[in-house]
Amino acid sequence: MRIYLVVVDDTPEAEIALRFAARRAVKTNGGVEILTLLPPQEFIAFGGVQATIEEEARHHAEALVQGAAGTLFEESGLRPSITVREGEGPRIIREMIAGNPEIAALVLGAAASGAPGALVTHFSGTDAGALPVPVMIIPGSLSLEAIDRLS
Description:
Shape: globular
Strand order of the largest sheet: 3-2-1-4-5
Strand content: 15-25%
Number of strands: 5
Order of helices and strands: EHEHEHEHEH
Low-confidence stretches: none
Structural class: alpha/beta
Distance between the termini: 18 Å
Number of helices: 5
Oligomer: single chain
Radius of gyration: 16 Å
């Protein structure tokens, strides 16, 4: 099965990338893997405070992907796989792609204006040719109608 790996955060461009990936998956009889990244937490000397901060970040990320998965299911009928991982985004993405030969593409949303985002910058820059799958960069300025037409 062809799986589209989508990195989701709480930005509008992530929603656009997820919609594009879901529509492509439906048309190609594939699936969607939703990845949410937790940034590595800075060390805080008080362990209890550190644990609380990490737990709150994980709860926020889990709520984010559950909401995205619900929207995906409502719009396309697909039940995505969900992964929440902490660490450096590019490294985690490479590990996920290497660990799952069914991943056919990495789908990222680019901000509608300004800098496109750290992952888009990374995977379209010096690391552009290093992945074994295509990188699909979905412009954040696309309307829902345009996404539906292009996907």
